[in-house]
Amino acid sequence: MSEDKILVAIADAKMRKNIVRQLKDAGFSVATAKDGEEVRKMIKTDPPLILFIETELPKVNGWDLCRELKDDHLNRKIGIILSSENADENERIRGLELGADDFISFPYSMPEMLARVKALARRLHLAKNRIKVRDLEIELDEHQVKKAGKPLDLTYIQFKLLYLLASQRDNVFSRKEILDRVWGKKVYVTNRTVDVHIKRLREKLGEMHYPSKYIETIHGVGYRFM
Q1: What pLDDT, on a 0 to 100 scale, did the predictor assign at position 2?
Q2: Alpha-carbon distances, residue 113 vs 57, 107, 215, 224 (angstroms)
Q3: pLDDT tens for residues 6-21?
Q4: Residue 145: enclosing H or E segment and its boundaries?
Q5: Among residues 71, 29, 64, which one has the least CA distance to residue 50?
Q6: Rounded to an integer, what is the distance from CA 18 to the centroid of its chain?
Q7: Domains of the chain, first to last
């Protein structure tokens, strides 16, 4: 996902050009799309940080795209701002219930639009460095883990191991992948090292009995965060 890319999907060329200019002047990288099909293709190849999308786009409308993105676990982290001309309260509520992060009714002032985009970008950047799974909270910036609100005393390696697994919950990591990404390729450690650290990490998480509530062993393959 591009760190500060905004994908602007507005049918009206003049309005799209104006929005793009304001965003670029604010330091964002901006891509544009003219219809919903183009948005789908662009998201597959280079997902943006934020999708600024009109509800009534040609081919595939913004309502459907918003629903698709929030149902797709791979793209759930894309921020979505829906936009519509003279939208009433019911339309704005509908957009937020579909999963949009914000809804802007145009005509609107460019300073307000820019302020909303910046606010959403800040929230998304903060969220990327924070993971919450059930009763666990993992703060990347502070290297801190809390369970049910209480800090856990993890070593540096234990923290890196937990963050790796929890940040990509759908992935099964082989022991080699874990070794390379936690210890680094230039450090010589064995597969047994991974198993020992997983065991100690589970103990720190309060896992004393099988099956684990947090870290699943995939026999013959590796580990996955549940």
Answers
A1: 47
A2: 19, 10, 42, 41
A3: 999 999 899 999 999 9
A4: strand 144-147
A5: 29
A6: 28
A7: 5-128 (3.40.50.2300), 130-225 (1.10.10.10)
Please classify residue 54 by burial: count the beta carbons closer than 10 Å to its beta carbon, then call 0-12 exposed, 13-18 middle and 19+ buried. Answer: buried
Contacts of residues 200-203 at CB distance under 8 Å and 24 or more positions apart, as own/partner, are: 200/158, 201/154, 201/158, 201/161, 201/162
As to burial, measured by CB atoms within 10 angstroms (0-12 exposed, 13-18 middle, 19+ buried), residue 75 is: middle
Are residues 105 and 93 in contact, defined by beta-carbon separation less than 8 angstroms? no
Say if residues 7 and 33 touch (Cβ distance below 8 Å).
yes
Question: What's the sign of the alpha-carbon dihedral 126, 129, 133, 138?
Answer: negative
Amino acid at 54: E
Predicted TM-score (pTM) of this structure: 0.62
